[in-house]
Amino acid sequence: MDTLLLDLRYAIRALKRSPGFTALAILTLGLGIGAATAGFGLLNRIFLRPVPGVRDPSNVGFTMFSERGAHGDMAVGITDADRAHLIQATPTVIELAGWQGPMRLGIAAPGAIPALAEGAFVTGDYLHLLGVIPAMGRLIDSSDDLRPAGLRVAVISDRLWRDLYGGRQDILGSPLLVNGVQFSVAGVTPPGFRGPDRLELTDFWIPGNTYWDVQHFDSKQRPREIDYYRNIVRIRPHSSFDLATSQLLGAVRALATDTSRFDSTLTARVVPGAGIERAKDSLRHQLFLILGVSGLVLLVACANVANLLLFRRAQRRADVVVRLSLGAGTGRLVRLLLAESGLIGAIGSLVGVGLAALLIASFGKVRMPWRADLGAIPFDVRVVAFAAGSGILASLLAGVIPALVATRVNLGSDLKASGPNQAGGAPRLRLSLAVLQVSVSLALVAGAYLFADTIRNYAQLPLGFNPVGVSVFHVDPKRMGYDSPRQRAYYQVLMEKASAIPGVTHVGLVDVPPFAGMFSFSDIVAAGAPDGTKPLEATEYKVSGTYFTTLGIRLERGRIFTQSELWPDTLNRVRPLIVSVSLARKLFGDRDPVGALVDLPAGRTAERGIIVGVVADTRIDLTGPIEPAFYQPVGQGRFDYYSPAVLVQSSLPERMLSKEFQSAARTVDGSLPVDSRGTLVDAETASIASKELLFRVVGILSGLTLVLTIVGVYGIVAYGVTTRTREFGIRTALGAVPANLVRVALRPALIITAVGTLAGVAGSLYLTKFIAASLYGVSRFDPFAFVTAALILAAAVLLASWLPARRAAKIDPMVALRYE
User: Fold this and answer.
1) pLDDT cut 70: percent of the chain above it
2) Among 491, 669, 709, 808, which has the highest number of CB atoms less than 10 A from its own CB?
3) Between 742 and 574, whose confidence is greater?
């Protein structure tokens, strides 16, 4: 310990004597550690942090049951009786609970304006399975979920308790209206708990037996039991999910044999670990890619600091030679030199933590293409420990090689040759480290260019409509028990009220708005087609006639829906349809489709439609191709199964329009909450949110790497000029012109740039295969990206080298020789 303290005191004195070197080394290492810590912070936020409020999340897993259908695996629901059978037949499984949701439900406290919140219908053992300990009151239990009727109780999240009830302590037993149905608050969950899935945040939980009441299903439509399509499992401690999956597969096959409700393809899949169920694989790929890129930044920083230390060791070679000649051991000297790099790493870790906070703030909130917002990325113990570990690792990577090189001396010759300007060291090693920096930097800059091209290509995609100035609102009268005739009347009045808002130009209805991430597909075939003709699969929409004018979708031929077609007194046997250009071409070739009949062979009965118009193709998903589509009048369908969104085109700011629309909606029915979903432009951006996060992070980190590379090459040239002061003085005294001295000083930078560019291009051709799946409209072998990256890097490196090279040309030979 005494020796360690002596080494640290020596390191502190040595670093204080060279403040410029110390600041540069600490800042460089801090940049690398900060980049790596920021990347780990993203990974930790989404995957590694334990889900708040869940007991032993490592023993919890999501369970999906499915059957093989014509279009792939289709999820199936299981009842309480099925669940009891599966638990009994699966020894590894302790508990198996079901839930539906989260889904947007209307809520209201007494005297408050109705709002929307994410609610889930759960079995009585759901919250107990998760091990939730209520902050107040109690949880839902099996007695609340009895059939045919239990208690109408609700457990609310800490967030909803504060937002809706103001954090009152007398909340227990208070009424909560859910879609107009009264519940009483039984408990409040602990702070932070919003369910087991990070991407699906839940605000409250109610018993599953209330599903049919809350959704206002007619008594004749209610099945005897609710089918839960989503299930969660807890396995025994020290058991494996593989064993649980194997046992569960055997149990579901026996269940399929014993009951006629399932076919022989019934299967089960367990996703271990609470945290993320949706899009787990794609998110994992992107986040590990971000962590890999940030690791490359740290590698460049280590190479940079190692080069600085090599020059420093070379300048202090005389000190090392004298110590060895006086009997110091090699190991003792290595420890002494490592103390210096360790101190740099420790301070660099502190700088890195601060820089990581700035980087994460520049990344923005973690947004996903769903309603969930993961929010800010916290600095917990894991992130701090990672920063400290990165500092230790960086200290070793940057310090070990220079320390070993510094102790490889020949005492006889080095005692005679040592002097204050003796360069010494390992020039090839220094050049190799610099080449590594340039090559990695080029690869990242090329990747950032490819990502920028991808974003530009997304922005230039032809949508077939204009999303600017269009806001999306959702009002669901089914929440208050409206039947189909009352819903038709409601939407007609709502459209009139919305159209009367000053600044509003068009109002339209659609069952699935653009960029919503949901699609409805139906088969369609030309009437009278030969037997055996395979129907085409097309995207189906239910819209108002004003939908096309609201979005500016071009009418190619025919007409749009009339008011009598849109809101008929009786449903037409032959429905009017509007088809997209691509669907019309596939169905009828070059023939005029207007007036042609088509069949919609859905389910057991086929419907017939007549084409009244053809509109331009539209793209409602940036990540997929344009799909053939057809449109039905919104009022022709049964509102029992869907509620259309309201699209409003306006010149008003979105916030003002939302306020005006909600006020207009309350004049129609004040009990219905309005879901303001923002603008279509925001929805378009959110549809590629996870990819945009990747692009933004890689862009920032590649910029950091470029800065580190510039600093590294500048350091090499600057220290090279310093250590060759005597040589440049002699050259000047012998008549060398400044231009020749500049060329001599720039030669290492030119070699580094040339070799690093070639190595970087070769490395990029390999590394870009990891980002190929995230690119759009650009090849990972795009030569323009590599040429641009090489030019940017070469210009930056040469500019950084020019300044110390000019200083070499201005060396006074008398001063240089006197100094020697």
Assistant:
1) 81
2) 709
3) 574
Residue 438 to residues 297, 385, 431, 434, 702: CA-CA distances in angstroms?
11, 30, 11, 6, 12
Amino acid identity of 484? S
For 505-573, the DSSP string reads EEEEEESS-TTSS---EEEEEETTPPTTPPPEEEEEEEE-THHHHHHT--EEEE----HHHHS-SS--S
Q: In terms of Cα–Cα distance, which of 378, 374, 382 is closest to 360?
A: 378
- Alpha-carbon distance of 370 to 362, in angstroms, equals 21
pLDDT in tens, 263-306: 777 887 777 765 555 445 556 677 777 778 888 888 888 888 88
Structure tokens of 466?
């204009």
Q: How far is CA 759 from CA 46, 348, 714, in A?
A: 35, 29, 20
Within a 13 Å sphere around the CA of 252, how many CA atoms are in the beta-carbon half? 24
- Paired with 153 in beta bridges are 184
* Residue pLDDT, tens place only, 439-466: 888 888 888 888 888 888 887 888 888 8
Q: Check: CB of residue 558 under 8 Å from CB of residue 568.
A: no
What does the angle CA 618 – CA 550 – CA 669 come to, to the nearest 5 degrees? 125
Round to whole Å and give the CA distance between 511 and 629: 14
Q: 640: pLDDT confidence band, cut at 50, 70 and 90?
A: low
Model confidence at 113: pLDDT above 90 = no
Mean pLDDT of the chain: 79
Q: How far apart are the C-alpha atoms of 711 and 301, rounded to whole Å?
A: 10
Q: What are phi and psi of 42, to 5 degrees?
A: -60, -50
The tokens for 348 are 């660099």
CA pair distance 582, 593, nearest whole angstrom: 12
CA 637 to chain centroid, in Å, comes to: 36
430 close to 723: Cβ distance less than 8 angstroms: no
Q: How far is residue 178's CA from residue 169's CA, in Å, rounded to a whole number?
A: 21
Give burial (CB, 10 Å; 0-12/13-18/19+) of 64.
middle
Question: What is the spatial distance between Cα 391 and Cα 404, in angstroms, rounded to a whole number?
Answer: 20
Map tokens 């917002």 to a residue.
Answer: 373
The per-residue pLDDT for range 392-439, each reduced to its tens digit, is 888 877 777 666 665 665 555 554 554 444 444 556 777 777 888 888
Residue 108 in contact with residue 120, Cβ under 8 Å?
A: no
- Cα 213 from Cα 594, distance rounded (Å): 44
Tokens of 283: 């998110």
SS (H, E, C) 430-469: HHHHHHHHHHHHHHHHHHHHHHHHHHHHHHCCCCCCCCCC
Residue 634 has pLDDT above 80, yes or no: yes
What region does 517 belong to: left with phi over 0, alpha with psi -120 to 50, or beta?
Answer: left
Contact 521, 539 (CB under 8 A): yes
Contact at 8 Å (CB) between 599 and 611? Answer: no
Residue 385 CB coordination number (10 Å)? 11
Backbone angles phi, psi at 538, to 5 degrees: -135, 155
Q: How far apart are CA 11 and CA 241, in angstroms?
A: 52
Cα separation, 485 vs 507, whole angstroms? 21
Tokens of 184: 């009483």
Question: Which two tokens mark 641?
Answer: 């199964």
SS3 at position 597? strand
From first CA to last CA, the distance across the chain in angstroms is 40
Cα separation, 446 vs 444, whole angstroms: 5
Statement: residue 204 has pLDDT above 90: yes
**Partners of 269 in beta bridges:** 64
Q: Which residue has the tokens 């360690």?
A: 4
> What's the half-sphere exposure (Cβ side, CA atoms, 13 Å) at 543?
26
The whole model's pTM is what?
0.74
Give the contacts of 239 (CB within 8 A, at least 6 positions apart): 59, 92
